[in-house]
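Sequence only, no structure available. Ideas?
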Amino acid sequence: MLSLSSSSISSLGTGIGTNSQSNPVTWQTVFLTLVPLAMNTMAQPSGSVCGIRNRYRTYLRSSPVICAADCISILVQIAVIPVHLQTSPRIALDVLLHRRFDQYYEEEESEIAIQDLEKLTWFRWVFFVFGTFPPVLKLTAMENVLWSKIWGMIFLASFLFVEALALLPEPSRLQYTRS
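Reply:
I predicted one. Tokens follow.
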């Protein structure tokens, strides 16, 4: 005869995946999921970071705080440039791309550095698909690592946002003047 008590009924409700305290995520696992995200963000052609032209932009983008500030800076510029220059949003986007990327492409290429990875678009996308996307999926499935998820999503959003800007057609070489 089968007897069910209240404690045995309540234990039926705790199946696999509901008790997140039994398998906590180790810091090593979180670290190894954030590293590919940070490396992918560092290896893209970001041009100026937060409006500042800097030869250390690759290292600056290793910080999720700088990545978030850079995305906010781009959004603010997209909103302010059309109003400030009294022009259309398309011309404003050209101005933004010109300000952000022109000096990046005009830099002297005398030294071989980590920034050379920024010019290999195919490498960045292959690395993203095979090296970064699986850890992103793993990170989103983890529980009780809220700040790590936030950092990871900042890196991911920054990569996708700046990559979309980098893939836009090169702005025309027109001189933009205020009307």
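Residues 6-20, 173-179 have pLDDT under 50 and may be disordered.
Hope that gets you unstuck.
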